[in-house]
Write a structure and sequence with these properties.
Elements (H helix, E strand, L loop, with lengths): L2 H10 L2 H16 L5 H8 L10 H10 L4 H19 L9 H21 L7 H14 L5 H5 L5 H9 L5 H9 L8 H14 L4 H21 L4 H14 L4 H10 L4 H18 L5 H8 L9 H13 L3 H13 L9 H9 L3 H13 L4 H12 L4 H9 L1 H8 L5 H11 L3 H12 L3 E3 L5 E3 L6 H15 L4 H9 L42 H14 L17 H11 L3 E6 L2 E6 L6
Antiparallel strand pairs: 1-2, 3-4
Helix pairs in contact: 1-4, 2-3, 4-28, 5-6, 5-7, 6-7, 7-9, 7-10, 10-12, 11-12, 12-13, 12-14, 13-14, 14-15, 14-16, 16-18, 17-18, 18-19, 18-20, 19-20, 20-21, 21-22, 22-24, 24-25, 25-26, 26-27
Length: about 575
């Protein structure tokens, strides 16, 4: 069974064939008759943010308690949820909501996977997901740790049980990247150790060296701005392992190389990706979107690769297809709306945002445009929540929204990283027009601002200013110490918020690899029950939209947990949801 087959079984609650298939693969792996690549590939599809899988996971863990396969799959899902919440930006652009949710889901990932590691003889897939979660927190190893081979347990246990594992060595190499707190010397020391140990075959060792050079190229381009070094090391990587021609294409694009060089690298990558059934990275999308008409001969192969990946559940490929329509309409690429709608209905925020842009771009009826914007806002899109706030009367009339929801969307926009919304909310707090309640919700008031409101306002302005938001920087410079003290602060005067159409950002260097940040075993079984509250049992992405509607109460709970406004608290009588105060983060 392939990835979509497995997810469809889980989504439909047809658990027994799913459990049997994965358990049989694990047994074959432990018997030495299945390669680690095939085992990890079977669990990889669960590394998704798909919200429609919640009920399936609950049923799976209840039907087969204390077994390995559902715990590993669930840990992968938690990791996918965390990555989705974090988003693809560099760490300084990750929103407050993104950091809170990432921390929450990484904790669940680690706890669930560590419990899984106790349930079978060779838990390679569990160690793999623990390693990926550890990478997302950032490298905690010093160069001396690497030189003396003082590696974390997820690596040492996996290699002890699997001396020839390439997969866990690749995860450790990722862990040691410069942008994650390691260095080129960290990585070089590690790769040389693996070569001297002689446990990998020649082909696997060559691939590890290729990935080393590719990681150096990535850092040189995206962080050191050394495009010559990026191209040089990417060429070495591509010669060692053809699939690294993707990194060469990215480096050549950054260096503004000739179309012929970029086209050659693109062709080499597409051939390798087709042969290895590989899914392109976010930075591949950036390279494609920054191409010109020289790319046209390869557009059929590019769109075929992306369409296949999107149909297999890769939402990022669906988003890239949509962005190709937006930024290069003359290319005539196929409509991405169908695969984007599936991804959106599974909870993928970027897909929802892309659909909103496409509706605006194709001059869809205004009611359709607003519907797409509101759906993205309800998936915690900061930009789309800001749009709802700015044009709230129109959204209120069409969707019968309550007046108090206007500030809810403002808070969601600011918490979601929209800088203009951060500035607006900060000024509303300083003006004494709103305050943040103990339940984490904004309430309209008309009073001298509270100390907590001023502290949160200052935090919002500082977050926006850290990403070069000029109005926030100006407001911080103009403020005096007394303006941040409730007893002496002056209520600021507000300016009207301007409205305008949706304008997607120009193609920026795509998804950067995720950067930094345990449930005890006794709590893990309680985690499984959370998702009975979080997922609507009627959700099926293959059904039409009217069939996918969720009750208002249910939807609100989903949104507040995902936004970090509520957190699950485990007690003797089950799970309770208690408010989180954003001012504590």
């Amino acid at each position: 069974m392939n990835g979509p087959d497995l997810l469809n079984l889980l989504r439909s609650g047809d658990i027994d064939p799913l459990h049997t298939h994965l358990s049989d693969l694990q047994a074959q792996f432990e018997a030495g008759t299945l390669h680690e690549r095939d085992l990890l590939r079977a669990f990889q599809p669960f590394q998704t943010s798909d919200l429609t899988l919640g009920d399936g996971f609950q049923k799976w863990t209840e039907t087969h308690p204390g077994t390995y396969a559902p715990h590993v799959a669930l840990a992968n899902w938690f990791l996918g949820r965390g990555w989705e919440a974090r988003g693809g930006s560099t760490s300084n652009h990750v929103s407050d909501q993104g950091w809170r949710s990432l921390d929450h889901f990484l904790t669940q990932t680690d706890g669930c996977a560590r419990h899984a590691a106790t349930l079978t003889d060779n838990p390679l897939a569990a160690w793999n997901v623990i390693g990926l979660a550890s990478n997302t927190r950032g490298c905690q190893l010093s160069l001396h740790d690497v030189q003396t081979q003082q590696y974390p347990d997820w690596f040492t246990h996996a290699v002890q049980d699997n001396p020839r594992t390439l997969a866990l060595r690749r995860v450790m190499l990722l862990h040691l990247r410069t942008e994650w707190g390691g260095s080129e010397e960290h990585m070089l020391t590690f790769v040389r150790q693996q070569q001297d140990a002689g446990q990998l075959g020649q082909t696997d060792m060559q691939r590890l060296w290729a990935e080393f050079h590719s990681h150096v190229a990535h850092h040189a381009q995206h962080f050191a701005q050394d495009h010559a070094l990026a191209v040089e090391r990417a060429r070495i990587a591509a010669e060692l392992y053809p699939l690294q021609s993707e990194q060469l294409l990215i480096a050549l694009t950054g260096a503004n190389a000739s179309p012929s060089e970029r086209l050659d690298a693109l062709r080499r990558y597409l051939s390798a990706a087709q042969q290895e059934n590989s899914v392109p990275s976010g930075n591949f999308g950036w390279a494609v979107l920054n191409a010109e008409d020289w790319i046209k001969p390869e557009l059929p192969r590019i769109t075929a690769l992306l369409a296949s990946a999107a149909q297999d559940g890769d939402a990022d490929s669906a988003v890239l297809l949509g962005r190709m329509q937006l930024f290069h309409p003359a290319w005539g690429t196929q409509s991405a709306r169908a695969v984007l709608e599936i991804a959106r209905d599974q909870g993928h925020t970027a897909a929802a945002e892309t659909l909103a842009y496409l509706s605006e771009h194709t001059s869809a009826p205004v009611e359709q445009r607003r519907a797409d914007i509101l759906k993205a806002a309800d998936l915690l899109s900061g930009e789309m929540s800001w749009h709802v706030y700015r044009q709230f009367p129109e959204f209120q009339r069409q969707f019968n929204l309550e007046p108090r929801q206007r500030f809810r969307y403002l808070h969601r926009a600011a918490d979601g990283g929209e800088n203009d919304a951060r500035f607006e909310l900060a000024q509303q707090l300083r003006a004494g027009n709103v305050e943040l309640g103990e339940d984490g919700l904004l309430r309209p008031v008309d009073t001298q601002p509270l100390q907590a409101s001023l502290e949160y306002a200052r935090h919002l302005l500082e977050r926006a200013a850290s990403t070069d938001h000029a109005p926030s920087s100006k407001a911080l410079k103009a403020a005096r110490d007394r303006d941040w003290q409730a007893g002496t602060a002056r209520r600021v005067k507000l300016r009207a918020v301007r409205t305008g159409p949706l304008r997607p950002e120009e193609p920026a260097e795509g998804r950067q690899t995720r950067v930094p940040w345990f449930l005890i075993a006794a709590l893990i079984f309680g985690v499984f029950r959370v998702f009975s509250h979080l997922a609507d049992r009627s959700v099926n992405p293959w059904e039409t939209q009217p069939q996918r509607e969720v009750s208002a109460e249910h939807q609100q709970l989903i949104e507040r947990v995902a936004a970090g406004e509520l957190q699950p608290v485990f007690k003797e009588d089950g799970i309770h949801f208690e408010p989180v105060d954003p001012r504590d983060h």
